[in-house]
Amino acid sequence: QVQLVESGGGLVQAGGSLRLSCAASGRTFSSDVMAWFRQAPGKEREFVAAMRRWSGPVYADSVKGRFTISRDDPKNTVYLQMNSLKPEDTAVYYCAARIGVVRITRYEYDYWGPGTQVTVSS
């Protein structure tokens, strides 16, 4: 059974940093696309960042220059380093995976974690 489990969320002041982790189990994701999405209260789940092994990362415009996605394939883990956080980054952050190429639409991802809350205070 495939499982994705996020960790590292929490409460941080504006301008601060957090590092999210997503541990995958159940199969090897080294060839898959690993991605991060987020969902704020009352809003749709939106794309944040994604990367496929041997390919460059893709970021949403709203996080470019502030967030960095990385992966450790031997550990089946993907990370999201979030710097210069803003109150508008407050959301539940989800890890997702899919087979194939990078997509930015949530409907095209097959596997999801339960999410981790990130709250940025002003």
* Major sheet characteristics: 7 strands, mixed
State the share of residues found in helices, binned by percent: under 10%
- Tell me the fraction of residues in β-strands, as a range: over 45%
Q: How would you state the average pLDDT, rounded?
A: 94
Ends apart, CA distance between termini: 40 Å
Overall number of strands: 11
- Radius of gyration based on Cα positions: 13 Å
Number of helices: 0
> What is the N-to-C succession of helices and strands?
EEEEEEEEEEE
Category from helices, strands and their pairing:
mainly beta
Uncertain residue segments? none
Indicate the overall shape: globular
Keywords:
7-stranded mixed beta sheet, mainly beta, single chain, 11 strands, 122 residues, 4-stranded antiparallel beta sheet, 50% strand
Structure description:
- The protein starts with a strand and ends with a strand.
- The strands form two sheets. Strands 2, 4, 5, 6, 9, 10 and 11 form a seven-stranded mixed beta sheet that branches. The protein has a four-stranded antiparallel beta sheet with strand order 1-3-8-7, with no helix packed on it.
- The protein has no helices and eleven strands.
- It has strands at residues 3-7, 10-13, 18-25, 33-39, 46-52, 58-59, 67-72, 77-82, 91-98, 111-112, 116-121.
- It is mainly β and 122 residues long.
- It is globular, with a radius of gyration of 13 Å.
- 34% of the residues are buried.
